[in-house]
Design brief:
- There is one protein chain.
- With 100 residues, the protein is α+β, with helices and mostly antiparallel strands.
- It contains four helices and four strands; from the N terminus they run αβαββαβα.
- It has a single domain (4-99), classed as Trna Endonuclease, Chain: A, domain 1 (3-Layer(aba) Sandwich), CATH 3.40.1350.10.
- The chain has helices at residues 4-19, 31-35, 66-77, 88-99, and strands spanning 23-25, 44-48, 51-55, 81-83.
- The chain has a four-stranded mixed sheet with strand order 1-2-3-4.
- The longest helix is centred in the N-terminal third of the chain and has 16 residues, at 4-19.
């Protein structure tokens, strides 16, 4: 059975695909050590109307890891957005705020 985070991530991926928004899924599992990927990198990242965004899907009771908090702070300091939705409705609210 898929986790809440996996299900939310798949809904978001389908939504972005349907809109034709270019995005990619950052696969961290097993790659961090092998390729020295940046710890805390969000699940998804993409570009919409020349603006870069990140999405870290979380379960209702999920929390950001310390590495995720550091990454979020780093990119937000540079003016980029990191959405951290805890539900589909939460993602839609954050997406609407980002796009309008």
């Amino acid at each position: 059975m898929a986790s809440e985070e996996t299900e939310l991530r798949e809904l978001i991926r389908g939504f972005l695909t349907k809109l034709g928004v270019p995005f990619w899924h950052n696969l961290q599992a097993g790659l961090k050590r092998r390729y020295r990927c940046k710890a805390g990198l969000p699940d998804l990242e993409g570009v919409y109307r020349k603006r870069h965004f990140y999405v870290e899907a979380k379960a209702v009771r999920g929390v950001l890891s310390d590495d995720q908090k550091k990454f979020k702070a780093m990119v937000e300091k540079e003016g980029e957005l990191v959405m951290v939705p805890y539900s589909w409705e939460d993602f839609l609210r954050q997406w609407h705020k980002f796009t309008h």
